[in-house]
Write a structure and sequence with these properties.
11 strands, globular, 9-stranded antiparallel beta sheet, single chain, two-stranded antiparallel sheet
Amino acid sequence: MQIEVQDNLNSGASEQFVFSELGPVRLVEAIRVLERGVETRCDVTGVEAEGKFVPAQAVKIADSGAGYAYLIFGGSWGIRLRPERFKKENWELSNPNQWGEPFKIYGEEEDIIYAENK
């Protein structure tokens, strides 16, 4: 799998990365992140060109250090995160309570909340 996110309204650019997939791609509803030093559950969505929101996804990938990791990715504009306390707010690129990133990599699957686990 190849990921390269160009600079856009959601997130900054990323270099081109190539990952070796070790499992199936799954839909993701939320992830746990450190926000100001506190572990917080954040909803996550993918962002395509022109700011169209799509489901975020995760896949187990090869990692040279730990053997494997989990890649959280979205659309061509990356992923967007929204702390759970702002769940009632719509996804919006201009919302200061949300932020975008090209992708995230996690070492522990327990930090990922899959959509099918609702």
